[in-house]
Write a structure and sequence with these properties.
Blueprint (H helix, E strand, L loop, with lengths): L24 E2 L6 E2 L13 H6 L14 H46 L3 H34 L16 H41 L8 H23 L5 H7 L6 H12 L3 H20 L5 H19 L8
Antiparallel strand pairs: 1-2
Amino acid sequence: MSDSSDYGQGPGTPCPVHPDRGAKRACGRCGNFMCDICSERGMRSLCLACREREGFTAFPLNRSNWTIGSLWELCWAAFQREWGMLSVAALILMGVSGGAQMFMNLVVAIGGASNSVALTVVLTLIVVIAQMLVQGLVQLGFLRVAFDVLHGRSVDLARLFSQMNKLVHYAMTLIVMMLVLFIPALLLISGGAVAVMLGMGGVEALRHPATLLNNPGMLIAVTSAVGVLGIIVCSYLLLPLYLLQPELAFCDDPPSPLEVLQRCWRYADGQRLRMLGVCVLMVVISLVGLLACCVGLIPAMALIQVLFAGMYLAVSREAEDLG
């Protein structure tokens, strides 16, 4: 298979499926040339014919035609077809998360028994990072399972652990994400809260924040301002980050961390309102699952993952990407 760096070079040999486009890379299975449409902008290592031979069907939604209703209809049909195995996958994911939490508690207890604060802090930090990475990589695997189901394939539980080779790339992307977006977002929200406090109570409110408790009006104003700023920041700046995990899971050869963030930002452009609607739908599904004697949480979690994967597929595709 040609290296992922082949993607993005100038046109060369014409693509056999789309002759008006130059080939950008070769199929990792049969060696046929692929253009950017065939490889879905470099995210697929197999050509259209090989994907069809493996049972893949085209995902019909794209940035131009998807709605929350059409996404729900498509994802619900896919979930109904494979709900049993998807629920098993969700149960495995929950088991991995629970096991990681138990291991973290054990390590913290060992550190506490040593009577060394420094050792306890170091061990806790290491275990928290390891837990976050393991859970994140299994989550990527679940998304691969969901992609398979949305493309007409059956659930393959082994795919849950198919993303472990992306450990370094996933970790680097998280670090870049924190530096580029999370920290500025927190500074923006904090700055807004400070500005409101200055406007309501002057410098004295900053020197003695406890005075807010004695001034309900100021407290409500500051809380409301932080809440509004948080919604705006999350909707505009942080909502694209919701696509980060599916972008990493979908790409056979993930791009650089900065390119991943840039792609997610482009995907969310003009799609934020519908994406926010899907997020609200996911919350409703979670609440319904919780009300169903908690047992419903497992299939609800599986359905949410299918919706999550479907939303990514819809917003990441232009109409021409369907070939």
